[in-house]
Design a protein that fits this description.
Blueprint: H1 3-21, H2 25-67, H3 73-81, H4 84-113, H5 124-141, H6 146-172, H7 196-210, H8 216-222, H9 227-256, H10 275-282, H11 286-320, H12 338-357, H13 361-393, H14 398-401, H15 411-434, H16 437-461
Helix pairs in contact: 1-6, 2-7, 2-8, 2-9, 2-13, 2-15, 3-4, 3-13, 4-5, 4-11, 4-12, 4-13, 4-16, 5-11, 5-12, 6-9, 6-11, 7-13, 7-15, 8-9, 10-11, 11-12, 12-13, 13-15, 13-16, 15-16
Length: 481
């Protein structure tokens, strides 16, 4: 974004965009898959575990952001507090994550469209290409109204979820559908924990994907004019958002839709229909279900639009700083990162083709993104721990250097690191027990990619891990751009 747009966002739009930015495919669509695979109890537990981890991750990132407010935060933290090779790795992983997320959003839009019979005759891949072409045109020729448009899209998403929660509660108590549903779906067949503990472990990474983007709020607050005041507010906001939007929505869906409903997953283990749409259908007003479906369609396309915008700018930033292809780090005559936009679009196209021609490809992309997000979060936590260690090693004043300090340190980082390790092992434990080597290798691919990026860059550029005694702890250090 331009500096002017960034300033405009901070005055009126940024809070709503931050809230809406983390509400998308993960909640509207993937939540149904989580309930289907893990049961209502497993889904709630999975989202609760990720929610606790996110809270402590937010406090850690808030501490880093207030100490070192800089654009390209995640990469900059790793570069300054760990190793330039770690900064390179995080930068490219973050680009890969949001490129794949954009692809998932576009695929989701094509699935949402099939709710209306008139669109069922056209293959999903065709709709994906049409949507991607539309988003490419919007990004290539018009960015002027980006902030205003995303503000209203975010507003619609938040308003829709609030309406959904109200209607859901009325249905649970039988006020709308004349028969109280209560908690009977929590004891239906194998519920509340479908597939036992393995079912819950298997969906944790997808639940992690659902929360992806939430961490940006901490960085935004850290770059505000008064981070000491803004940071606690941002953390509280995210905590209540997790409690209200995510956990609340999962609880409503789990109460109203049996985990065995075939519309949550189709034969290819992909999401078939949004649980939000299914619930509005059950109210008995098809018009309301169509409106909900239309809202979800615009929401995921909006997320795809902002994803393509952000990823192309991120790739341009990486390349212009000498950590990518030189030609990609250049602007065209209209000051647009056109080459970065084209390369990002190519990766998104490949992800769409992969998902459309591989059974269960959609779910595999969700898992891959979830794992990559966990890796970036883990590296960010290591950055915070090393910052604290350096302050102590250099005998600096902790209270003076850290404008905002994360509560319960070092318990917070320990919880986050343990949760991440638990997630990595949990998602693969069934494959390890079954000795399913192809699937195990598939789940380990993001980790292998991370190791290859880190050590590859390290070998070429001969970088070294920053020594704690030599780490730059100047309060107003700003990386030159």
């Amino acid at each position: 974004m331009t500096k002017q747009l960034d300033r405009d966002l901070k005055t009126r739009h940024i809070s709503m965009i931050a809230i809406g930015g983390s509400i998308g495919t993960g909640l509207f669509m993937a939540s149904g898959a989580v309930i289907s695979q893990a049961g209502p109890g497993g889904a709630l537990l999975a989202y609760a575990i990720i929610g606790v981890m996110i809270y402590f991750l937010m406090t850690a990132l808030g501490e880093l952001a207030t100490f070192y407010p800089v654009s390209g935060s995640f990469s900059a933290y790793a570069n300054r507090f760990i190793d330039p090779a770690a900064g390179f790795t995080v930068g490219w992983l973050y680009w890969l994550i949001w490129s794949l997320v954009t692809g998932i959003d576009i695929i989701t839009a094509s699935k949402v469209l099939t709710y209306w019979d008139m669109f069922n005759g056209i293959p999903s891949l065709v709709w994906c290409i049409i949507f991607l072409a539309l988003l490419f045109i919007l990004n290539a020729f018009s960015v002027k109204s980006f902030g205003e448009a995303e503000y209203w899209f975010a507003f619609v998403k938040v308003a829709t979820i609030i309406l959904f929660l109200i209607i859901g509660v009325l249905m649970i108590f039988g006020i709308l559908n004349h028969e109280p549903v209560g908690l009977k779906n929590f004891t239906y067949k194998e519920a509340p924990f479908n597939n036992g503990i393995l079912g819950m472990l298997g969906v944790l990474v997808v639940a992690g994907f659902s929360f992806g983007g939430t961490e940006v709020v901490a960085v935004t607050a850290g770059e505000s004019e008064n981070p000491k005041e803004a940071m606690p507010k941002a953390i509280k906001q995210v905590f209540f958002r997790i409690l209200f939007f995510y956990i609340g929505s999962i609880f409503i869906i789990a109460c109203l839709i049996p985990y065995t409903d075939p519309r949550l997953l189709n034969e290819g283990s992909n999401v078939a229909m949004s649980p939000f749409t299914i619930i509005f259908e059950r109210v008995g007003v098809l018009f309301a279900a169509s409106v909900m479906n239309a809202v979800i369609l615009t929401s995921v396309l909006s997320a795809g639009n902002s994803g393509l915008y952000a990823t192309s700018r991120l790739l341009y930033s990486i390349s212009s700083h000498g950590q990518g292809i030189r030609a990609v780090g250049k602007l065209n005559k209209r000051n647009m990162p056109y080459n970065a936009l084209i390369l990002t679009t190519i990766l998104i196209t490949l992800s769409i083709i992969y998902a459309n021609f591989n059974m269960g490809g959609y779910a595999k992309l969700l898992n891959m993104v979830g794992t990559l997000v966990l890796i970036v979060w883990g590296i960010s936590i290591i950055s915070q721990v090393r910052l604290r260690m350096a302050i102590k090693k250099q005998n600096k004043n902790m209270n003076q250097l850290l404008t905002y300090k994360s509560p319960l340190y070092p318990l917070g980082p320990i919880i986050v690191i343990c949760a991440i390790l638990f997630l990595f092992i949990g998602q693969s434990i069934a494959d390890i027990q079954a000795l399913n080597w192809p699937k195990l290798l598939e789940s380990l691919m993001p980790i292998i990619l991370t190791i290859a990026c880190y050590f590859g860059y390290k070998a070429i550029h001969k970088t070294k891990i920053v020594k704690l005694t030599e780490m730059d702890l100047s309060e107003h250090h700003i990386e030159s751009k």
